[in-house]
Amino acid sequence: MDWDKPVSQEELNEIEAAFDQASSLFQKRKTTNHINTSAKISRRLPDWESHDRQFQPRVLRSEVRSKLNGEIENNSKSCSESNYSPRNESWGSRLRPHRVKVTVNPAIKFGGQIVYCRTVPEVEKATVELMGLIEAKQKNMEQVTLGLDIEWRPTFRRGEVPRKAAVMQICGDTSRCYVLHIIHSGIPPTLQSLLEDPTILKVGVCIAGDADKVSKDYNVHIKSLEDLSWLANQKLDGFPRRWSLAALTEMLTGKELEKPNKIRLGNWEVEILSEGQLQYAATDAFVSWHLYEILKSFPDRPQNQVGEQMVALQS
């Protein structure tokens, strides 16, 4: 169109009509696009009334916890009532604590015959039998050594008078140990003669303390003593120490000398000792004899080195 040329009224009317038609068409398309876009981005509401979907009720956290605890309890019961296997163990039962006793070394126990005596005739008979074994060794020019230990009922109140020695255990080889319930039998003359014989060596840890207690309680003076802790410091390398029987057992044998408090601190004055008490007592006496046999085969350390370290230990 030539805008410099004059425009008639008819041409102006045609232009306005064409403009109105184009505007109407544009508006119609815009409305249609808006409706389609709204349909695409609109949020779909749940179909609450549909019969194909079931309503899911809200579950409270407390209900979940209660249900979970119930399942754990049921799982625990089912494990104990059925054939249990760790692979089938539920995660809930694995959360339950378990107390496990861990033993690093195998336990050492006396495996021979335990002769238990609690009356005077029984103690005298056992002593005569023991003396016969000792005399046979002496005839063969063998050194006679006896592992010796005592037990008594502990006191737990301050100021309470200590109880008398209740049990004496004696062992001289791997075949037989004698457990004498002296709180009931006392120490008959035959046993006293054996204990006071200076040719028979008695060995143990802190054996001088045991001998002192027997002297105070029964007026029997045990002679010819050798402390295993002192002997170990004479034989073993390293700085001297105050060895316990359990520690020395582990050092020399690699085994554990069990000392359960239920037995160690139990009542040794009972009428008849339990099987556990008999095994405990016999093992202590046997281990004392056994450790001496091991230590005496070791060469002595240089005396000057031992002397200096012993002085340091005592200071």
Task: Record the SSE blueprint.
Blueprint lengths: L8 H33 L19 H21 L9 H4 L18 E5 L2 H20 L5 E8 L12 E7 L4 E5 L1 H4 L3 H7 L5 E4 L2 H12 L6 E3 H8 L9 H9 L7 H4 L10 H21 L7 H12 L1
Keywords: Exonuclease, Hydrolase, Magnesium, Metal-binding, Nuclease, Nucleus
Organism: Thalictrum thalictroides
Pfam family, one: DNA_pol_A_exo1
Brief description of this entry?
InterPro entries: 3'-5'_exonuclease_dom, 3-5_Exonuclease_domain, RNaseH-like_sf, RNaseH_sf. This protein is α/β, with parallel strands linked by helices.
Characterization of the model:
Residues 72-91 have a biased composition (Polar residues). One of its GO terms (biological process) is nucleobase-containing compound metabolic process. Residues 121-300 form the 3'-5' exonuclease domain. This protein is an alpha/beta fold and 315 residues long. It has a domain at 113-314: Nucleotidyltransferase, domain 5 (2-Layer Sandwich). The protein is 49% helix and 10% strand. The chain has a 6-stranded mixed beta sheet, sandwiched between helices. A hairpin with a 4-residue loop joins strand 3 (165-171) and strand 4.
Q: Can you tag this structure with a few keywords?
A:
315 residues, alpha/beta, Nucleotidyltransferase, domain 5, six-stranded mixed β-sheet, 6 strands
